[in-house]
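hey so i finaly got around to running the thing on Adenylate kinase isoenzyme 6 homolog from Cannabis sativa. pasting the sequence first so u can double check i didnt mess up the copy paste, my clipboard has been acting weird all day
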Amino acid sequence: MAANDNSKRKKPNILITGTPGTGKTTTSSALADATQFRHINIGDLVKEKNLHDGWDDDLDCYVINEDLVCDELEDLMEGGGNIVDYHGCDFFPERWFDLVIVLQTENSVLYDRLHNRGYSETKLKNNIECEIFQVLLEEAKESYSENIVMALKSDTIDDISRNVATLTDWIRAW
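ok and heres what it spat out for the C-alpha cells, dont ask me to read them lol
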C-alpha cells in the first residue's frame, strides 16, 4: 500500500466497500475509533438527509441519488480524514480517495450473516452472486487506479482486527 505523497490533503480518505454483510460498517467504525477519522456511513447519510429518490420495494432499500450524495460530501472530502462506508463505489469522484478497500467474505459466512439480517431469498441470492463474481472488486478496479485498490478477507473478528491494524499502520505512514 503506497502512500499518496502528491495529495494536498493533510490526511487521507479511505473508501471501504464490498457486498452487504462483508463487515464494512464494523471495520469502518473500528478504524475510525483507532485513528480519530470521521466514519461516513452512506446508507445512514442517505436516510438522515433524504438523499434518495424513494424506496425500491423489490430490493427493499432506498434508491440513492448519487448526485445529492456527492454534493453533500464534497467539502468534507476535501479536508481528508474520512472513512467512507458503502456497498457501491463507481459514482464517487476518483480524486476523493487515497485508498479503496474491498472487503470479501467466504460465501457460507456471508450467507449466514445476510440470513440473520432477515434478507429475502431474492436479495440474499443477489448479494451472494455479487460476492461470487467479485462485482465490487471489479467495480473498484474500473473506477480507481488499481494501485490504490486492495481486497481484504473479512470472514472473522480476527480478520477485521488484522485489517484495522493494517489500515491504521497505513494511515500513520501516509
